Amino acid sequence: MTLSPAWLDELRARTQLSTLIGRTTKIQRAGREWKACCPFHNEKTPSFTINDDKGFYHCFGCGAHGDAIRWMTDQQGLPFMDAVKELADAAGLEVPAPDPRSRERAEQAATLHEVMARAAGWFEERLRGPEGSAARAYLERRGVKPALARAFGLGLAPDSRTALRSALGDVGDDRLVECGLLIRPEENGRDPYDRFRGRLIIPIRDARARVIAFGGRILGDGEPKYLNSPETSLFDKGRTLFNLDRAAPAARKAGRVIVVEGYMDVIALAGAGIDEAVAPLGTALTEDQLERLWRIDAAPVLCFDGDAAGQKAAARAALRALPFLAPGRTLGFATLPPGQDPDDLVRAGGRAAMDAVLAAATPLVERLWSHELEAGPLDTPEARAGLKARLAEHAAAIGDREVSHQYRAEFRARADALFAPPRREFVPRPQRSSRPDRRGGWTPPTPPVLAATREVLRRGSLHPYARAILMGLVRFPDGIAAHADELERLSFDDAALDAVRAALVEAAWRGVALEADTLAPILRSAGAEGLSADRAGANQLAFSFQRGDAEPDRARRDLGDVIGLLVRRAEVDEALAAIPSRFNDEADVAAWDDQRHLIDERRETDRRLSELMQITDDAI
Predict the structure, then answer these.
(1) Are the C-beta atoms of 5 and 107 separated by less than 8 Å?
(2) pLDDT score for 118
(3) What is the DSSP letter of 70?
């Protein structure tokens, strides 16, 4: 089997060499590289280095040198194909099936790289020649100096249908069409013609700095303003980031990587001394592009325009990244001033202006929160519930369970703080009369409702309701995910029942399809198999979701109401428990009013819970 160079390059790009070698060899960080005592010969002083940027290891003692595949063959002793298969499995790549034509395609790909390099050189010559005066003037107006144009290999495609075809005539039309440089008309008999005409040419390179495609910016009037090469055997726009070859080493030095919207933005930032910027190529960020960015930095900064379109693009990028978040993998979001792109910003304020925007970047969680908060008014209970539901959906979309849990908790805390009722202003009452104590001093009066507080708290256990709630959730499993946030905030006195509650909530976080057959092993592991058969007996007080004669929609609604009431009751009890300590401060007259208000609310909660209970008509 012959594997294509492009596929092997992808395998190497997806394999972090230091992690691979570190599985069997003790390594330690040394600047941007890693070092170790060479595993190929005995030594006491480390002379073996690993460079993740370049993807190779080298020993200055014995001369051992190679990449990830070479490590697997030389150090692990695997045959070449076994090494490739093991690395591909770890990287999530599928090894291409044997194909008699694979060697031919590999040789063809190498030839295509040569064709693209020749085309890039030809475009550059056109920019420097007499016909490039208009393009050079355009670059000057954009602030792109000749040295910067050379660094990016900028060129010119003359406004001609045959100029490139004639210049590379020895390559042949078929090869030029395969490279995406010519367009072959659908009508038979018509000659192919140049794809890029009258455009500034921007070479697009792979991670190894080989030209694999071109972008063209029109110089006069016409559409489209920007034109990219079509996808070819060399170019996959969903896997490619413009300027990655230059940005990767610069990003590791700067400690950040920046994602902007287009390649002219990248070039403008490079002109201001910010070399660590990349850009997607006309698409939203893909999983493969995010993976490449996270290999460079744990928190790439996405930079978007400050207008409505830019903010919508930022929100789409945030949502697209959610399934791939993990510890040490997130995104930051920088917002440009309205009406300005990076080019405008650096020309007006220099690098300092762009650095200030980047320094003010917000984390992904803040971007999601702001996006949903600004989605519409929140002046009705339904709108506020909708906000919480959308935030919960975003948290649930995160693949990593712990990160998902942290986002859920953060969103819930923010929503609770936003919608918390304002603290009532209390007017201090006149000081009540005091009585002399035995020593002739004076003591403040005992709060008249303190005894009531103690009595309420004494009756505050959730135990009478815990089993009922769990029975209801087993009968109506769809309520587990719907009320997971509230269930997490409850805590049952009975350790066994609380373990069942926690197990059900965890299953909801994991995205388990909660149905009768999937609940059985969860209940069994928590030692609560009996809940699935538990029902209210005849002539007992019971909620509708415990009864066999209740209408299902009402039972589900009552189950949600009971859970919500118990969460609120627990919050009231917590506030009541904290009030007695406030009476140590004689000046806190408002504590008396707070206490009365909370006791009234607690009694109202208990009354509503009682209303939801009825005598069963029949046992089931």
Answers:
(1) no
(2) 95
(3) H
Query: Are 200 and 219 contacting, i.e. CB atoms less than 8 angstroms apart?
Result: yes
Measure the CA–CA gap between 368 and 394, rounded to whole angstroms.
8
Whole-model pTM over 0.70: no
Per-residue burial over 311-346, b = 16 or more CB atoms within 10 Å of its CB, e = otherwise: bebbbebbbbbbeebeeebbbbbbbbeeebbbbbbb
Give Cα separations from 487 to 430, 561, 564 (angstroms). Answer: 43, 12, 9
Segment 578-607, tens digit of pLDDT = 766 555 544 455 666 677 778 888 888 888
List the chain residues with pLDDT less than 70: 1-2, 77, 98-110, 420-464, 510-511, 516, 526-541, 579-593, 614-620
**By three-state DSSP, how is residue 241 classified?**
coil
pLDDT single digits (tens) 275-284: 999 999 987 8
Q: Which residues contact 48 (CB under 8 A, 6 or more apart)?
A: 25, 35, 36, 37, 38, 39, 40, 57, 58, 59, 60, 61, 64
Question: How far is it, in rounded angstroms, from Cα 254 to Cα 202?
Answer: 25
The C-alpha atoms of residue 280 and residue 28 are separated, in whole angstroms, by: 34
Q: Give residue-wise pLDDT tens across range 29-87.
A: 888 789 999 988 878 889 899 998 888 899 888 888 889 998 888 777 677 887 888 89
Nearest residue to 4 (alpha-carbon basis) of 298, 162, 233: 233
> Could you identify the residue written with the tokens 């200030």?
356
Start-to-end CA span in the chain (Å): 67
Two structure tokens written together for 328: 């040490």
Q: Which amino acid is at 22?
A: G
Q: Helix, strand, or coil here: 102?
A: helix
With beta carbons less than 8 A apart as the criterion, state whether 363 and 332 touch: yes
CB-based contact 491:464 (threshold 8 Å): no
Chain CA centroid to CA 112, Å: 36
Tokens (6 digits) for 324: 């791939």
Sheet holding 301-304, edge to edge: 277-278, 258-259, 301-304, 332-335, 362-363
H or E element at residue 178: helix 173-178
Give dist(CA 214, CA 237) in Å, integer: 11
The phi-psi region of residue 492 (left if phi > 0; otherwise alpha if psi is between -120 and 50; otherwise beta) is beta
